[in-house]
Amino acid sequence: MISSKLPNVGTTIFTRMSQLAAQTGALNLSQGFPDFPAPPALLEAVTRSVQAGHNQYAPMTGLPVLREQVAAKIARLYGVTPDVDQEITITPGATEAIFCAIQAVIRPGDEVIVFDPCYDSYDPAVTLAGGRCVHVPLSHGDFRIDWQRFADALTPRTRMVVLNSPHNPSGALISHEDLQQLAESIAGRDLYLLSDEVYEHLVFDGVGHASVLAHPELYDRAFVVSSFGKTYHVTGWKTGYVVAPPALSAELRKVHQYVNFCGVTPLQWALAEFMAEQPQHVDALPAFYQAKRDLFCDLLRKSRFTFTPTAGTYFQLLDYSAIRPDLDDVQMALWLTREHGVASIPVSVFYQQPIAEQRLVRLCFAKREETLREAALKLCAI
Ligand code: PMP
Ligand code: GLN
Questions:
Q1: How confident is the model at residue 1, as a pLDDT?
Q2: Are the C-beta atoms of 137 and 149 separated by less than 8 Å?
Q3: Res 56: pLDDT
Q4: Quick count: other Cβ atoms within 10 Å of Cβ 51?
Q5: Closest listed residue to residue 289, CA positions, set 274, 306, 310, 305
Q6: What is the CA angle 141-146-148, rounded to 5?
Q7: pLDDT tens per residue, range 14-59
Q8: Is residue 244 a contact partner of residue 43, using CB atoms and an 8 Å limit?
Q9: What is the 3-state secondary structure (H, E, C) of 307-340?
Q10: In angstroms, how far is the first alpha carbon of the chain from the final one?
C-alpha cells in the first residue's frame, strides 16, 4: 500500500468533465480552452522554426529573443522594464512556473494564504513543499478579497500569498486599491507573493489589468506568472513565463532546471517572431473576448439562469437556483452534460469548504460564435 503524499488529490475536474463531454458528445464549455485556431502567422512561424532546425534544447531560462519580447510587452503595458537576463524565465506552462516558485521558497511548516475559490494547482504544490495552505474565502457573491479576513489569517508562519487576477473561476478583478491594501497589510513581514496573472489580457469594459509588476513595493517580493497559452489561443503549447526580481528568479531557476530544464524550443522561436511582428495582438484581446462574453450573455438573458457578466477571463458563472436548486453543483454539471448536452465546471471544487447553498457553474466562452449560439440554445431550452 503506497502512502500517498497527496492523499486528497484525484483526477482533476477539468480532465473528468472534458472526458464526459467527449463520451456524451456534449458541447465542451468546461475546461478552459478555445475551439478556434491560433493566428495563422503564429502557426506558420512554428512550421518555419521546426523546418529551420530549431529543435534542440533552448537555454534553461528561455530564448533571449522571447524574453526580450516579454520585457518589451511589459514595458509597453505596465511601464516597467524587467531585466531580460535576470528577471524573466520562460517555463513549460504557467503551471510549471507556479510549481517552481512554490518549491523555491516554501519550507516545511510554512503557511501559504490562498483565496477560495482558488485554482487547483496551488494547494498540491504547497503540500509537496511541506507547507500548508490557509484558505481565506473571497466575499460571497462578488468574489472580492475581504482585507480584514486576510489580516486575521496572517501569522508568523505565513510565507507566501497567492493572488489570481483576473480570477479563475469568477472572473473578478483585483484593483489598484486592493494591491495598495495588500502592500500595507504585509509591510515589514517576511513573505513572498505569487501573482497568477495568466488572464492579464482578458479584462473587459475598459477597466485595465492591475498588475503586481507595476507595483514596485509588491514586485520586490513577487513571482508574477503568465501564460502564452491563454494570450495566443494555444493552451496545448504549455508555454508560459515568470517574472521575478533577480534573487527570486535565481532561486526559481534552481528548481526549474531540474523540473524541466527548459521550455519547447520551436514554440519559443515562433512566439518571439509573432510578438515582434504583431504586438497589437494583445491590444485587441479585450475587445475580442468581450464581444464573445456579450454575445453569450445576451443569448442567455432568455434563459432561467441568472448571472452578472464577467469582468475578466474567458469564464462566465451561471447561477442555476431557479432551475434545479435540489442539485449541488457537481450533480448539476453532470445533469447539464448528460441531459442537455453542455459541459461546465462546478464551482464548489475550487473551495476547501464549499458554500452549501451556492448554485454556480462555470462556462468557458472562448468559443466560436456558432458554438456559443448552439450552447445558448440548449441552455435556454432548460
Ligand atoms: N493559472 C490559472 C488561474 C489558470 O486558469 C491556468 C489555466 N490552465 C493556469 C494557471 C495554467 O496555465 P498553463 O496552461 O500555461 O500551465
Ligand atoms: N485552466 C484551465 C481551466 O481552468 C484548465 C487547466 C487544466 O486542465 N488543468 O479550465
A1: 83
A2: yes
A3: 98
A4: 10
A5: 310
A6: 150
A7: 999 999 999 999 999 999 999 999 999 999 999 999 999 999 999 9
A8: no
A9: CCCCCECCEEEEECCCCCCCCCHHHHHHHHHHHH
A10: 46
The letter for the amino acid at 168 is N
Angle between helices 280-300 and 369-380 (to 10 degrees): 20
C-alpha cell at position 248: 527570486
Contact residues for 240 (Cβ-Cβ < 8 A; gap 6+): 90, 91, 92, 93, 94, 95, 96, 97, 198, 225, 226, 227, 228, 229
The minimum-distance atom of ligand 2 relative to the CA of 12 is: 9
Which pTM was predicted?
A: 0.98
Which amino acid is it at 352? Q
Q: How far is the CA of 299 from the centre of ligand 1 (A)?
A: 28
CA–CA distance from 228 to each of 17, 164, 200, 334, 365 (Å)? 24, 16, 11, 31, 18
Contact of 252 with 242, CB cutoff 8 Å: yes
Cell 535565481, residue located = 250
pLDDT at 64 over 90: yes
Ligand found nearest the CA of 165: 1
Distance CA 290, CA 299 (A): 14
> Do 187 and 141 touch, CB atoms closer than 8 A?
no
- Mean pLDDT across 366-374: 98
Nearest bound ligand to the CA of residue 94 = 1
Phi-psi bin for 284: left (phi > 0), alpha (psi -120 to 50), beta? alpha
Show the cell assigned to 228.
502564452
Q: Which of 12, 102, 198 is the best mutation target for the ligand 1 pocket, counting ligand atoms within 8 Å of the beta carbon and taking the most?
A: 198
The CA distance from 366 to 24, in Å, is 21
Q: Is 370 helix (H, G, I), strand (E, B) or coil?
A: helix
Could you give all domains of the chain from N- to C-terminal order, each with its CATH number?
13-31+281-380 (3.90.1150.10), 52-278 (3.40.640.10)
Dihedral pair phi/psi, residue 315, rounded to 5°: -120, 140
